[in-house]
């Protein structure tokens, strides 16, 4: 097996390392963190808006009950006014009773309307907070859209480089014998992606450990095209 094949194998390994880096970059791109940061802020804002909106709904409910009561009172007062002035009631006792009821209803309506004013005063800062939160959320959503666009652009660039590197890898693997490729792939899976290393003197550049004297002597007797391994880490050595 020619020394050239081992050099090709080392080049293939460089491409595989780059592919691994690109896959990791795609999965953990910093632009993803920028998107996640805005998403988290929006989620927190949504949660706070839910609480504020619950307060608004509670106050709205109380106001609705009071509005209904005022409407009922006004209807009854209108009925009393009609009876007082349409001549249908003539007895003094009945007229006085209607007047007393009208006065009582007026007093009750005034009290209910005072409470309504209090509720409106409570609602004012709640509505202001909801309006401010809505403006903030709109701004955050614009930021999120922009960051998602940046992320898409960044990932597209990574995808393009990854596709090109994979194509280079396929071409680089073609001239390498199948049995050597099988050994290479197996070692890559067990040795953290680095299956091939140069031998510098008696030191393996993969594990940075020196070969034993016995292993080194045995390796020197092997033909130049023989597949030799580091006796420390098991990587294929390029002599």
Could you walk me through the main structural features you see in this protein, from its secondary elements to its overall organization?
This protein is mainly α. The chain has 2 domains: 28-172, Methane Monooxygenase Hydroxylase, Chain G, domain 1; 178-238, no CATH class. The protein is 77% helix and 4% strand. The protein contains 5 helices and 3 strands, in the order H-H-H-H-E-E-H-E. It has a 3-stranded mixed beta sheet. Strand 1 and strand 2 (203-204) form a beta hairpin. Helix 2 runs antiparallel to helix 3 (92-173). The chain is rod-shaped and about 135 Å long. The model has no long low-confidence stretch (mean pLDDT 93).
Order of adjacent strands in the largest pleated sheet:
2-1-3
Give start-end ranges of low-pLDDT stretches: none
Number of H/I helices = 5
How many structural domains are formed by the residues? 2
C-alpha-based Rg, rounded: 42 Å
- Terminal-residue CA separation: 13 Å
Helix and strand arrangement:
Blueprint lengths: L2 H25 L2 H56 L6 H82 L4 H13 L5 E5 L2 E2 L8 H8 L15 E3 L1
Helix pairs in contact: 1-3, 2-3
Would you summarize the structure shown here?
This protein has 239 residues and is mostly helical. The chain has helices spanning 3-27, 30-85, 92-173, 178-190, 213-220; strands spanning 196-200, 203-204, 236-238. It folds into two domains: 28-172, Methane Monooxygenase Hydroxylase, Chain G, domain 1 (Up-down Bundle), CATH 1.20.58; 178-238, no CATH class.
């Amino acid at each position: 097996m020619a020394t050239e094949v081992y050099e090709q194998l080392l080049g293939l390994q460089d491409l595989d390392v780059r592919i691994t880096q690109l896959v990791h970059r795609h999965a953990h791109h910093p632009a993803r963190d920028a998107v996640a940061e805005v998403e988290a802020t929006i989620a927190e804002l949504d949660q706070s808006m839910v609480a504020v909106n619950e307060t608004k709904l509670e106050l709205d409910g109380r106001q609705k009950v009071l509005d209904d009561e005022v409407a009922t009172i006004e209807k009854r007062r209108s009925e009393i006014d009609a009876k007082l002035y349409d001549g249908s009631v003539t007895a003094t006792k009945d007229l006085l009773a209607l007047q007393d009821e009208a006065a009582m209803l007026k007093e009750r309506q005034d009290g209910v309307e005072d409470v309504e004013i209090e509720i409106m005063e409570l609602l004012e800062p709640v509505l202001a907070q909801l309006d401010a939160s809505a403006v903030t959320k709109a701004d955050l959503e614009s930021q999120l859209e922009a960051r998602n666009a940046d992320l898409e652009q960044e990932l597209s660039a990574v995808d393009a480089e990854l596709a090109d590197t994979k194509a280079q890898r396929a071409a680089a693997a073609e001239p390498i014998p199948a049995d050597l490729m099988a050994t290479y792939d197996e070692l890559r899976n067990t040795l953290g992606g680095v299956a091939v290393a140069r031998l510098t003197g008696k030191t393996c550049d993969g594990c940075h450990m020196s070969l034993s004297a016995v292993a080194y002597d045995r390796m020197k007797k092997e033909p130049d095209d023989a597949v030799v391994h580091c006796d420390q880490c098991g990587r294929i050595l390029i002599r």
